[in-house]
Amino acid sequence: MGANEDQEMELEALRSIYEGDESFRELSPVSFQYRIGENGDPKAFLIEISWTETYPQTPPIISMNAFFNNTISSDVKQSILAKLQEAVEVHLGTAMTYTLFEYAKDNKEQFMENHHPVHSATSISNIISVETPNTAPSSKKKDKKEQLSKAQKRKLADKTDHKGELPRGWNWVDVVKHLSKTGSKDDE
């Protein structure tokens, strides 16, 4: 069987296994998220697994970059990812998404033993400071709104009714004028 056939079979299996499970989310046919732990559990975390084109012969991409994980320190995230990567190497060549999610569920306490909630404000400010240089020039241009003069505002208000809407037919073409212009060219 080719990689695509394996992926299709695993996709069907995942959909049937996790049907109705609120912790599981299919982001796309090759990308999945699973919340390990209950909602409101301070030691809960989210794992995202994305398949490459040649998965399961090559390892999937495992990520913990979801906003849900902002309270988890990067050391704990790296530790969890390293342990999951070890499991990937053991199962390489076989369908492993379900196995990885179950492995994470079974070892949640061990994975999160060194977890001390990080204040999300620091995480968010770190993310913002990292992303700011890329978005700063474009955001300044978007913030600037076009300013209308008093005369322009008055003219706009005169055209609209009390609700600020333009009257029906304000942009209609005068049919007689239009036909007289186009008709005279046809007569020549």
Automatic annotation (TrEMBL):
Pfam families on file: RWD
SUPFAM superfamilies from the UniProt entry: UBC-like (SSF54495)
Gene3D superfamilies in UniProt: Ubiquitin Conjugating Enzyme
Region: Disordered, residue numbers: 126-167
Comp. bias intervals (Polar residues): 126-137
Matching InterPro entries: RWD_dom, RWDD4, UBQ-conjugating_enzyme/RWD
Domain RWD: 9-111
SMART domains xref list: RWD (SM00591)
Annotated Basic and acidic residues bias: 155-166
CDD domains listed in its UniProt record: RWD-RWDD4
Name of the protein described by the UniProt record: RWD domain-containing protein
